[in-house]
Each structure stands twice: as C-alpha cells, then as structure tokens.
C-alpha cells in the first residue's frame, strides 16, 4: 500500500514537472518558484534541441561602439539582440535601422535605466512607453521583448507589463560582468566558458573592452559549434523539458541577480 502511494506520488511529481517545464521556456525564477503563468513570460535561458544561443547587448546604441560591433557581427553573419535605452535610441535611430536591416532584434531597456522593482507602476509604464515609441519611430515596428535594467523586476510587474505591452521579459544565464571592465580576455573567457545550448548571454555595447572581446568570443563560440540567433528566434525554438533537465535548471547558477551593478558604473 505504502509503495503504491510512493509510485503514485512520483507520477504526480513527474506530471507536475511536465506541467511546470513543458512550456518551452526556462522560468526565470525556476527554483522553488510558483507555477509560471501560461504562456511563459520570463526567460533567463531557453530549452532548445540544438546548439543555439542568443547574444544580447544592453544600454546602447552607442554612437561609436555599436557600429563597430555591427561590423564584427556582419563579418561573421551573426545575429544578436540589442536592448536599447530609449534616450540613446532616440538620439541614434540610424543605428537601430542598420541593426534591423542586418537581421538583429531590438528590445526595450527603459528610457533612463532605473531599477523597476521599487518604482510605482505609473513611472515604469512611462519608461517603457517612451522607449517603445522611440523604437517604433526609428524602425517602424514595436519591440516584443523587454529587459529590466539590472534585472530588477517583481513577479507582479512581469505580469502587468506582459499584459499591457505584450513584452516577454528577458533576463540571462551568462553574465561576464563586462561592466566592471575586467579586460577583453576575461570577458571573452567568461562568455565562452559560460555558454550552453539555449543560453542568453548578457553584455553591454557601451564599453570599449566589451567590443574588443567580441571577435575572439564569437570565433571561439563558433568553433565550439554554437549558432547565434535572436532572442525571439531562440524562444520560438523552445522545447518541452524532461524532468531531469528541470532538475538541472534549478541547479544552474542564479540567473539574474535581483540587485545589481552599481548604477553609477553601469548607467550609460
Ligand atoms: Zn542595462
């Protein structure tokens, strides 16, 4: 009787895991978090079948560095995702236009780069709307992705932002801490060592050392067989997760830090 109960409860746990992780996404707050809503609205990585990764660059566009990065990407025919700060997007719509023309994706990274978690809804809404408008003015379409500055966002904010703006909330699972400017070689090696199939890799196209790190990072990732896609393409490839993968997920190092980098250092 007792063993029947154990078998039954294992089946229930298995079914529960399928339910929790069967939506293609890796919930950003996987470990011990309540069941994610359907569809998954927040991602720090995506469970995919092949060696696909998404490089993401935040806080630009930067007048000098972003075009350099676009050249480096174009040389290798790689696609990336740019989470732009609205003020910069408004100042350099031509850089956004070029990025889109060359196959990259643009996401919303707020207007002035504040930490959302402690802000009033009205202020967050204004930050997102102004940036949404600037992106639409520049490239003619609205973004479908949003990355909160510093990864700072509450579950409640994720819900209303998704329902009002339709944004998927994009965090990351590989963080080279390039904003601390550790030197290009360190940035390269952190990215190359951290990348896994389905990874969303964080970097910033406002630091010269980050741009210098990219040729080697891209070439080493390519040599390992990784294929570069935009975040929306990665999400579209999402596969249901097997229970053992679900375990592995909760063991992954913490995805997005709730609190982060010193604003003074990272703010563009
Ligand atoms: Zn940022």
Radius of gyration: 19 Å
Order of helices and strands: HEEEHEHHEHEHEHEHEHHH
Percent of residues in helices comes to 40-55%
Shape: globular
Content-based structural category: alpha/beta
Residue share in β-strands: 5-15%
Uncertain spans: 11-25, 244-268
Enumerate the distinct ligands: zinc ion
The CATH homology group name? Glycoside hydrolase/deacetylase
CATH class: Alpha Beta
First and last CA, distance:
64 Å
Number of helices: 11
Description:
With 268 residues, this protein is α/β, with parallel strands linked by helices. It has a single domain, classed as Glycoside hydrolase/deacetylase (TIM Barrel), CATH 3.20.20.370. It has eleven helices and nine strands. The strands form two sheets. Strands 3, 4, 5, 8 and 9 form a five-stranded parallel β-sheet that branches. The protein has a four-stranded mixed β-sheet with strand order 1-2-7-6. The C terminus is likely disordered. Zinc ion (ZN) binds next to loops.
List the defining traits of the structure above.
single chain, 268 residues, alpha/beta, TIM Barrel, five-stranded parallel beta sheet, four-stranded mixed beta sheet, disordered C terminus
Q: Secondary structure elements and their pairing?
A:
Elements: H1 2-21, E1 25-27, E2 42-46, E3 52-58, H2 65-76, E4 81-84, H3 86-91, H4 93-101, E5 105-108, H5 121-139, E6 145-146, H6 155-165, E7 168-170, H7 184-194, E8 200-204, H8 208-223, E9 227-228, H9 231-236, H10 243-251, H11 263-266
Parallel strand pairs: 2-7, 3-4, 3-8, 3-9, 4-5, 6-7
Antiparallel strand pairs: 1-2
Helix pairs in contact: 2-8, 4-5, 7-8
The structure holds zinc ion.
């Amino acid at each position: 009787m007792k063993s029947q109960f154990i078998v039954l409860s294992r089946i229930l746990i298995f079914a529960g895991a399928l339910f929790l992780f069967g939506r293609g996404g890796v919930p950003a707050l996987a470990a011990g978090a309540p069941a994610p809503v359907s569809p998954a609205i927040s991602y720090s990585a995506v469970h995919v079948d092949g060696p696909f990764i998404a490089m993401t660059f935040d806080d630009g566009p930067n007048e000098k560095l972003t075009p350099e990065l676009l050249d480096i990407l174009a040389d290798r025919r790689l696609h990336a995702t740019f989470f732009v700060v609205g003020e910069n997007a408004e100042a350099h719509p031509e850089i956004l236009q070029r990025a889109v023309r060359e196959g990259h994706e643009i996401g919303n990274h707020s207007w002035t780069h504040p930490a959302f978690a402690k802000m009033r809804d009205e202020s967050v809404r204004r930050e997102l709307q102004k940036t949404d408008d600037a992106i639409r003015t520049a490239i003619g379409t609205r973004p479908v992705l949003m990355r909160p500055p510093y990864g700072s966002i509450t579950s409640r904010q994720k819900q209303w932002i998704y329902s009002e703006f339709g944004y998927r909330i994009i965090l990351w699972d590989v963080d080279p801490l390039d904003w601390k400017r550790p030197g290009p070689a360190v940035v390269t090696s952190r990215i190359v060592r951290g990348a896994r199939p389905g990874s969303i890799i964080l970097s910033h196209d406002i630091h010269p050392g980050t741009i210098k790190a990219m040729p080697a990072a891209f070439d080493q990732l390519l040599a390992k067989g990784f294929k570069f896609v935009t975040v929306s393409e990665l999400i579209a490839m999402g596969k249901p997760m097997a229970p053992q993968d679900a375990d592995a997920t909760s063991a992954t190092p913490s995805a997005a830090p709730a609190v982060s980098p010193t604003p003074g250092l990272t703010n563009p």
